[in-house]
Write a structure and sequence with these properties.
Number of strands: 7
Distance between the termini: 42 Å
Helix content: 25-40%
Number of helices: 6
Oligomer: single chain
Strand content: 15-25%
Strand order of the largest sheet: 6-5-4-1-2-3-7
Structural class: alpha/beta
Length: about 170
């Protein structure tokens, strides 16, 4: 089953304990980000500690409710322009607002998740596969109807092998 619109938003509204994502692409082409990417290219940056948005406020709410939102991004150096943008525009303020963002840098080493596509894991029971073109254009979000156990294991591996985003950018 493909998820879009209200069905997709309902996945996040229904979080009981955790929403977690694996990201494996060097770029995501999201039409809504075009203006922000142009501003980034022009040198505009946000003040991550002071930044507030509906997303950061939702992260804070989830934390106060004892819920968790997290992700691991598998990447290699040098960072793509998109990843530099994503680090600045999204990861920095979101990590400061409470999202558990981690980086799995596989530069010069074996990728323990090679071949695993992007996905969301909700409450360690529901998997949504994120389908993309090779250039990062999203095709669809697909509710996975099989056993979530392999995806729970992918999450375990990713979190064990990754470092926190804030630690990664200090290096």
């Amino acid at each position: 089953m493909l998820l879009d619109g209200d069905e997709w938003r309902a996945m996040f509204r229904g979080i009981e304990s955790e929403a977690w994502r694996l990201e494996a692409l060097p770029q995501y082409l999201v039409p809504q980000e075009a203006e922000e990417i142009e501003a980034f290219r022009a040198g505009k940056r946000i003040d991550a500690p002071a930044y507030s948005s509906p997303y950061t406020e939702d992260l804070k709410r989830l934390r106060t409710e004892g819920k968790r939102k997290g992700r691991v991004h598998v990447l290699t150096q040098p960072l793509s322009e998109y990843l530099r943008f994503e680090f600045s525009r999204y990861y920095a303020p979101h990590a400061l607002a409470g999202e558990d963002i981690r980086i799995l840098d596989v530069t010069g080493r074996e990728d323990p998740l090679a071949g695993v596509q992007d996905f969301w894991l909700f409450d360690r029971s529901t998997v949504v596969l994120m389908n993309y073109e090779s250039d990062g254009t999203q095709i669809s979000r697909e509710l996975y109807e099989g056993d979530p156990a392999p995806y729970i294991e992918f999450q375990r591996i990713a979190e064990a092998e990754a470092v926190s985003f804030l630690e990664y950018v200090k290096e």
